[in-house]
Amino acid sequence: MGDNTQAAHxxxxxxxxxxxxxxxxPAYVSDAxxxxxxxxxxxxxxxxxxxxxxxxxxxxxxxxxxxASTNQFAGNITANSAYTPDxxxxxxxxxxxxxxxxxxxxxxxxPCHSYKPTLACLGAALQALHKYGMxxxxxxxxxxxxxxxxxxxxxPNYPFETYALAAAYNLEELAVAASADTLHLKVHNMPSExxxxxxxxxxxxxxxLHETRAEKMKEIFFxxxxxxxxxxxxxxxxxxxxxxxxxxxxxRLFWVASTLSRIDIETSLRPLAVSTTCPDCKELLNxxxxxxxxxxxxxxxxx
Length: 303
Hints:
Elements: E1 12-16, E2 26-30, E3 48-51, E4 56-60, H1 62-68, H2 72-75, E5 89-92, H3 97-108, H4 119-131, H5 146-152, H6 159-168, H7 172-179, H8 192-221, H9 236-255, H10 262-275, H11 279-297
Parallel strand pairs: 2-4, 3-5
Antiparallel strand pairs: 1-2, 3-4
Helix pairs in contact: 3-4, 6-7, 6-8, 8-9, 8-11, 9-10, 10-11
């Protein structure tokens, strides 16, 4: 899912003769699932050892995995088997340690974002969750869930990629939240492989969000302040210059509107009202500014 080069926190530590290791001497074990009485795993001792494809060991509970899975963890856990800490189930799985770290944190309902998993890792974890029967994925990606948080943290840096990942797995809440981070981008600049991966429905909804906002932006920023009756202190020509300056600034804001905040708009427009010496023009401009700010605040921000 795109170029994702952020550094991940190591998920393993080197241990001397760790429990459940198939190797003699030092071996790498999970930082979170080491089998050393980690309170995050509960009070009971782990009865299952998982070795990742890069030879990192995870000490976990078979019942925890069985409870989370609808297919006995891809057929690796036999129902009603009496695994014990002294006679553990030993599994070697095909996923690397960073991916299994996410999967197992999800199984235990624990947050994993402190390990800074990359978006590619999180995408692989979603695939592994599906493989190991931890479905539907929506069970783990509702607002506030640890996996939801970990994925959404990627959206500011990888907005299209995060949205596409959520869309590919039909993770509605996550896709809705991630779509807000795409607003400063142009959908037509999105790589075609991302567009293909999210599917027609989510792509259409994203286009719809951006197109609707663009039309509303025109209504908000292409404004024409009303003139007031000519006064001795403010001629029609003076009014026209004031209104022209306001329209030009609004037009400028329209072309950069996708990157704007309310403060940006107010900082740009309010000085125009402050600088005019005509009280009538000042009142009219301030009313127009409030209309612009209100319209901007009411813009839809998600699909």
